[in-house]
């Protein structure tokens, strides 16, 4: 009988390695080491197994948008950490990023919002932190997750209204529907 760890290892090989790789081949040591390091540094997970499962699952989903495995795993660790710190679902944050920037850290909207979570630069002045770089993923995620968490609390947990506030479109449903659609159709993880 196969252990849970062996099943997870096979899943990792099947998802992370290219489709042409045979299950008889050992995973690339560099990629295996990278995943182990990422899991070890992921403080926001309850345990190592949860980190491995979530990172492998989300990495496979994110691969088409962020092809580099080092960048992808680093981003996923940051998303999970900042979302968890702000009391948000990491998958909801991934859906918001998907809708806002398609994971382009250098995205700039027509109204000047910057980075993956499309944070408005006026927030830097409001916080007295003009030196902050909103195209830095850690900074952008910290700002964006904090803002979304605030709006979610302000709207008493109403995700649709919180997303509309985040987008500056309160009273309209197009943007919240888009994010919730990405969340349900692409990023959602059943408990």
From TrEMBL:
Coiled coil: none
Claim: Repressor is one of the keywords in the record: no
Segment forming the signal sequence: 1-21
Domain of life: Bacteria
Domain Transglycosylase SLT: residue ranges: 79-174
Alphabetical keyword list: Signal
Family note: Belongs to the transglycosylase Slt family.
Protein name: Transglycosylase
